[in-house]
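Report of the visiting student (M.T.), summer placement. My assignment was to run the structure pipeline on a short list of targets and document each run. The first record concerns histidine kinase.
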Amino acid sequence: MSMPRPRSIARELRISLGLTLLAFWLLAAGLAFSVMQEEMGEVFDSALQETAERLAPLVIDDLYTREDTSAPRKLTALRENVPDEYLTYQVRDGSGRVLLHSHNVSADPYEAPLVEGFWSGDEKRIFTVAAVSGSIFVQVADSLDHRREASIEGVTALLMPLLLLLPASLIAVSWFVRRNVSEVDRLKRVIGLRDSGNLAPIDLKDLPIELEPIQQSVNLLIKRVDDALEAERSLTANSAHELRTPIAGALAQSQLLLSELQDGQTRDRARQVDAALRKLSVLTEKLLQLARADAGIGKSAVTSDLSTILDIVMEEFLRNRQSGSVLHYHRPEKMVLSREVDPDAFAIAARNLVENALAYRLPDTHVDVHLKPDGLRVSNLTSTKTLLAPEKLRQRFVRGHSLHPGSGLGLAIVERLATQMGAQLELTATPLAPDQSRFDASIVFRDP
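After the run finished, the structure tokens were exported:
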């Protein structure tokens, strides 16, 4: 089932104005044609009547000078092969018999009655003049086809300019609509650039007065959202900072307590407390990173060598006894990755990708970290059962099935920072065996 086409104000304006303009043009042409047809009819009738009245005395004189009136007399044409002879005439007596007729009509009497005035049939319009006390009738006929032809030629002459003017009018309407709607498009584009990473007020100059309230309302909404996000970030950062010290102290006390207790139920409970404190410490650290990511630290005006930043991060992991033995760092010699990115933001993103791979790798497998010309890729083998859809893994507080402690914020933080750094987080899972897949998490920078 196809999706409905989205509405467009500009398109609807062009269509409605174009159809309205076309309707008015056709209405004007119809009215003009109606008036023209009526006036042309009056002109034709006037010419028909005047011809009959001027012809009547002439044919009467001709009849009285002629001796034989028993058979209809046909007048010969003065010129042969004259085109477009539309008027014909007959002279009839009181009984209807044809006494005289023009060369371009037969001797069969017209269908018109012998009554003075106009009469219309299917093919002719006839004007009748009575003479000699109503004993002689002169009938002059005009072809209705001629009148229709004249009307068609008239309306054609009227519509021909319309065929040229109407497209020009539609083009002008479209141009004016596009020109005026361009201000709406400009405001739409600027509003579309606003998100939680860009909450700068909109300051468009020379906006039409109809759009000024929209700009003011959007700016007011942006300020409210910015205030709410800032309050949320401040609460998260302050809470995490305040929790760091007591958690670290509690962890130290739990370690001291474990060293003093003998094996038994009390020591097991102490281990549970220690594990809970470590999980809380990890969550606190991730919340701090999330607060910094929400603050928009990813972009920088200064170009940084990110390959050096990655070297420092990897050195920290490689020195650790647990992670160093399973990490394989692939760094081509003399490769430099330079971007206008905040070093701390890139370090946080890289550290989260490596930590995620270490947490979800299969036992006795390693983690590969590749420095690429366009970014960073971290790969690990994992169980297919622990994998979730990439769309879900990008969400906050969502994590795969693993016994390793985690907060479900690592990939969400990387997603947020990658967007700010002008990069993209790509997550792919490639099945290798019935219960084994290779999981790749990559930060791919767009062209600098």
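The chain has a mean pLDDT of 81. The longest strand covers residues 423-433. I thank the supervising group for their guidance throughout the placement.
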